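Sequence, structure tokens reproduced for absentees:
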Amino acid sequence: MKQAVEEANKSEHKQKVGAIIFDKSKIVSRGFNHPQRSVRHLKSKFQRWPGTVHAEVDAIIKAKTNLKNLSMLVVRVNSKNQLRLARPCRWCQMYLEYVGIRKVFYSVDEIPYINEIKIN
């Protein structure tokens, strides 16, 4: 969780989001949301807002390895470094399914602060 928050804090956006792809206790990749003019290798059906790369997508692109059956943790922090809802959007969920990630843990703004979804 701490490393996902550190990733989120690298973002220049108002909504800071960080993502970690992991296999049990081993981190495979990490990413954060950031502006980018083009993502040539990303199919348009996986990109909701042109010019912005979501943290989930950034972590997937940086992984450069097979992600089948791995898990992801996504967190969003506000300016006070408090956890907020970070459930992946519909487009990111499609991309997660496309690359084979099966379980996503994401931050919520109330106890227990983490929730989970299974990707088909």
Notes: The first strand starts at residue 16 and ends at 23. The chain is about 20% helix and 30% strand.
